[in-house]
């Protein structure tokens, strides 16, 4: 089934926010599954040593599973490591294992340490027999070399923001880091998309955060709000996204709607 416009070139997103628990991984896997369901071919790169995206997409990521670590540190071609997610024929995942925890330190002494993911991804996209439409890179909650590799490999940054009191705290640091990357390492990078997550309509606070973020970033914020939903948080324990776990739940429908907005907006100029 194909119901959304497909981009002519792969759109490569880094999903970033140096805060933990704001919905980076949840957003990565559910947008990826939503776009795959609507006809796109999608790759998720799990760049967090926790491997939560790999878990949610139902792909193997035991310590001995070939992973993104081997790609970044040992130059193993991505095509040898990528797995298909049981979620969809169109959805692939480059898993993360516990070995990735050491990569941050190991990268320091490697040549072209900021470009390693980009080089591997470019080769993969050029040589894979079918065209990919979207790549989502799920980042760890830090601004270290793994996250820098993600910013260098991407063209767009997607920032999930939790609708709570400290939402905007730390955001200016994230944005100035992205500016540094843009200036020195990746002139093509743009913060194209902001998604408000864990929205609870009953609280005034959540509505205030929504208003503040929309005032600050009128171009980037998606209209769709992701509600706080138990179904969303339950899905990963079944190795599933909410899109397949409970397709008609409000959480699933909101991620499908956000995916539609992203597809219809297209890549930034
Ligand atoms: P991050 O990757 O930024 O650390 P996660 O995506 O892992 O954040 O989300 C943190 C926690 O919040 C997880 O337990 C996740 O299941 C839960 N969560 C994320 N989004 C929602 C939501 N919309 N409603 C309810 N729980 C959510
Ligand atoms: Mg995460």
UniProtKB/TrEMBL annotation:
Stretches assigned to the AAA domain: 11-190
InterPro entries from the UniProt entry: AAA_dom (IPR025669), DNA_Partitioning_ATPase (IPR050678), P-loop_NTPase (IPR027417)
Pfam family, one: AAA_31
Gene3D superfamilies: P-loop containing nucleotide triphosphate hydrolases
Domain of life: Bacteria
Family statement drawn from the similarity comment of this UniProt entry: Belongs to the ParA family.
Protein's job: May play a role in septum formation.
Protein known as: Chromosome partitioning protein
């Amino acid at each position: 089934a194909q119901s959304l416009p497909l981009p002519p070139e792969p759109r490569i997103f880094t999903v970033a926010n140096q805060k933990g628990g704001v919905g980076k991984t949840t957003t990565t896997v559910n947008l990826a599954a939503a776009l795959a369901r609507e006809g796109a071919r999608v790759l998720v790169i799990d760049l967090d040593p926790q491997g939560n995206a790999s878990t949610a997409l139902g792909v193997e990521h035991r310590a001995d599973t070939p992973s993104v670590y081997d790609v970044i540190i040992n130059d193993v071609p991505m095509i040898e490591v990528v797995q298909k997610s049981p979620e969809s024929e169109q959805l692939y995942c480059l898993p993360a294992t516990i070995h990735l925890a050491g990569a941050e330190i190991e990268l320091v002494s490697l040549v072209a340490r900021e470009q390693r993911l980009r080089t591997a991804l470019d080769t993969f996209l050029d040589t894979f027999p079918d065209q990919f439409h979207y790549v989502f890179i799920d980042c760890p909650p830090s601004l270290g070399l793994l996250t820098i590799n993600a910013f260098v490999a991407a063209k767009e940054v997607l920032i999930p923001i939790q609708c709570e009191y400290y939402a905007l705290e730390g955001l200016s640091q994230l944005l100035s880091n992205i500016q540094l990357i843009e200036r020195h390492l990746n002139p093509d990078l743009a913060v194209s998309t902001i998604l408000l997550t864990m929205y609870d309509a009953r609280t005034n606070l959540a509505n205030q955060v929504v208003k503040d973020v929309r005032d600050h970033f009128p171009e980037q914020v998606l209209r769709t709000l992701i509600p706080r939903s138990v179904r969303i948080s339950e899905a990963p324990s079944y190795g599933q996204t909410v899109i397949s776990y409970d397709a008609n739940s409000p959480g699933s429908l909101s991620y499908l709607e956000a995916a539609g907005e992203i597809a219809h907006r297209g890549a930034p100029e």
